[in-house]
Amino acid sequence: MEKEYLISHPSQLNNLSVFPLKRNQSIGKIRLGGNMLNNPKVEFFENLLNKNYYSCGCSEGAKGLVVGLILGFGFIIYKYIESHISIINAIVIILVSFLGFSIIGKSIGLIIANKRLKNSISEIKSVWPPEKEHYENIHCG
User: Fold this and answer.
1) Which secondary structure element, helix H or strand E, spans residue 31, and what is its range?
2) Is the pTM value of this prediction over 0.85?
3) How many CA atoms lie within 13 A of 62 on its CB side?
4) Worst-scoring range by mean pLDDT, 15-24, 30-39, 44-53, 115-124?
5) Contacts 24+ apart (CB under 8 A), 61-66
6) By C-alpha distance, which of 18, 34, 1 is closest to 124?
7) Apex CA 54: angle with CA 53 and CA 60, to 5°?
8) Other C-beta atoms within 10 Å of 42: how many?
9) Is 34 left (phi over 0), alpha (psi -120 to 50) or beta?
10) For the chain, how far is it from start to end, CA to CA, in angstroms?
């Protein structure tokens, strides 16, 4: 059976993030509960939420990797034409551009993915009025 994470109040949506240090990796499929179950678009919103929550920015990272390789090789060709460049320097330039642009691409991808997730959360909250104030794990007495 697939693990599920039930969100029973719209305030719980605020805890969702795609950023690795903020994201709980093991929550499983996100399900919407509470009075959201009465909404005819609940399945659409669950699919949208899961798609955006599990976005990783990999396609932008791959694009950054390709850009880094192209620019690295372009720079090496330029340096070779201008003056000879050693093999060691060429390898270092390729690795630095490859790694640097991959990291930049992945970071941009995560920022875009998190923006999409926050937009989805806003859309869900606009049609999900809270029943009452929700306080998690507060015990008095």
Assistant:
1) strand 29-32
2) no
3) 4
4) 15-24
5) 61/102, 61/103, 61/105, 61/106, 61/109, 62/105, 63/105, 64/101, 64/102, 64/103, 64/104, 64/105, 64/106, 64/108, 65/98, 65/101, 65/102, 65/105
6) 34
7) 105
8) 17
9) left
10) 38
Query: Could you tell me which residues come within 8 angstroms of residue 111 by beta carbon, excluding any fewer than 6 positions away?
Result: 57
Q: With cut-offs at 50, 70 and 90, classify the pLDDT of residue 140.
A: low
Asked if residues 35 and 128 have their Cβ atoms less than 8 Å apart, the reply is yes
Angstrom distance (rounded) from CA 55 to CA 116: 9
pLDDT digits (tens, 9 = 90+) for 41-58: 999 999 999 999 988 888
Q: Which two tokens stand for residue 78?
A: 């330029």
CA angle 38, 40, 46 (to 5 degrees): 90
- Are 61 and 109 in contact by the 8 Å Cβ rule? The answer is yes
Question: What are the tokens at 101?
Answer: 């642009």
